């Protein structure tokens, strides 16, 4: 399912795109997926790269913007009336739930202003979901540093608290979608290798699998670091062995994370 709505071209883009008049905001449905293993990878890391998906869908219709830094895509989609920004910080579209790929098309056709969706007001009123209220990242408004998805993608080593916080997630997090009563979580199961595969993956093996597993864009050392934390949190029998081995790894992200976890075994 694809949603498109027009919006007048923002002032910040008029200088970059002379002659352009409008912006078409595009939202594409992302089917939820989950691994068949105890560890977790967010749907966005198991699906095709959304840059490619959005650009293929919008090809030939104008200049396509996807994951750019000029402004927030969620905010543009909200202003175009595609959906509302819920309490968990996700863009909620009635037709797509909290699973949209977002992009924009710059066009020379003028677009009429539309009624913007609500900002920071969850469409579920009242909501019986307690997950948002209990999540530390959402306690006083969205806190990026406490978000599991952000932590799995951050640079450098984990502190012990960060390693424990990500739980079984080795990339991203779908907890908000899974627990939201508006999302109707019905994921497809994706066959994945065991966690040990990521704990001990070589540089050559990593490169061979980059095209197969989209979440590997974060890089080998981040994946290994995250996998160490997941192995510790899952209490795998092999966790101590891998942590001791990783403590001497040349990557600081891996070695310092391993050392922090070894102190608590």
Number of strands: 10
Which regions have little confidence, pLDDT < 50, spanning 5+ residues? Answer: none
Radius of gyration: 20 Å
* Strand residue percentage: 15-25%
Structural class of the secondary structure composition?
A: alpha/beta
For the termini, the CA-CA separation is: 48 Å
Largest sheet: 4 strands, antiparallel
Question: Which oligomeric form is depicted?
Answer: single chain
Question: Order of strands across the biggest sheet?
Answer: 1-2-8-5
Q: What is the H/E string?
A: EHEEEHHEHEEEHHHEHEHHHHH
Overall pLDDT: 86
Domain module count? 2
| Helix count from the secondary structure assignment | 13
Question: Could you estimate the helical fraction of the residues in percent?
Answer: 25-40%
Can you give me a brief rundown of this structure?
The chain is an alpha/beta fold. The protein has helices at residues 11-14, 43-46, 50-58, 73-79, 131-134, 148-153, 160-165, 175-179, 195-199, 203-209, 220-234, 239-246, 252-262; strands at residues 2-8, 22-29, 33-35, 40-41, 63-65, 84-85, 91-92, 100-107, 169-171, 188-190.
Describe this structure in words.
The protein is α/β, with parallel strands linked by helices and 265 residues long. It has 2 domains: 2-107, no CATH class; 131-262, no CATH class. The chain contains 13 helices and 10 strands. Helix 11 runs parallel beside helix 13 and helix 12 (239-246) crosses helix 13. The protein starts with a strand and ends with a helix.
């Amino acid at each position: 399912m694809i949603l498109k709505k027009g919006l007048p071209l923002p002032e910040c883009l008029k200088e970059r795109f002379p002659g352009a008049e409008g912006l078409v905001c595009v939202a594409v449905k992302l089917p939820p997926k989950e691994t068949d293993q105890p560890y977790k990878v967010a749907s966005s890391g198991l699906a095709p790269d959304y840059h490619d998906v959005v650009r293929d869908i919008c090809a030939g219709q104008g200049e396509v913007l996807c994951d750019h830094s000029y402004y927030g895509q969620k905010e543009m989609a909200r202003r175009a009336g595609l959906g509302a920004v819920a309490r968990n910080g996700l863009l909620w579209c009635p037709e797509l739930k909290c699973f949209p790929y977002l992009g924009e098309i710059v066009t020379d056709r003028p677009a009429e202003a539309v009624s913007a969706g609500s900002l920071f007001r969850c469409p579920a009123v009242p909501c019986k979901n307690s997950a948002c209220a209990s999540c530390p990242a959402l306690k006083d408004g969205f806190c990026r540093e406490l978000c599991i998805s952000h932590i799995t993608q951050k640079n450098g080593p984990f502190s012990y608290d960060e390693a424990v916080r990500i739980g079984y997630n080795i990339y991203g997090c779908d907890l908000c979608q899974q627990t939201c009563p508006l999302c109707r979580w019905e994921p497809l199961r994706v066959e994945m290798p065991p966690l040990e595969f990521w704990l001990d993956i070589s540089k050559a093996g990593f490169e061979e699998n980059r095209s197969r597993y989209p979440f590997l864009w974060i890089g080998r050392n981040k994946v290994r670091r995250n996998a160490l934390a997941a192995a510790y949190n899952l209490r795998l029998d092999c966790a101590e062995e891998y942590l001791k081995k990783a403590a001497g790894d040349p990557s600081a992200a891996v070695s310092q994370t391993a050392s922090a976890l070894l102190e608590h075994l």
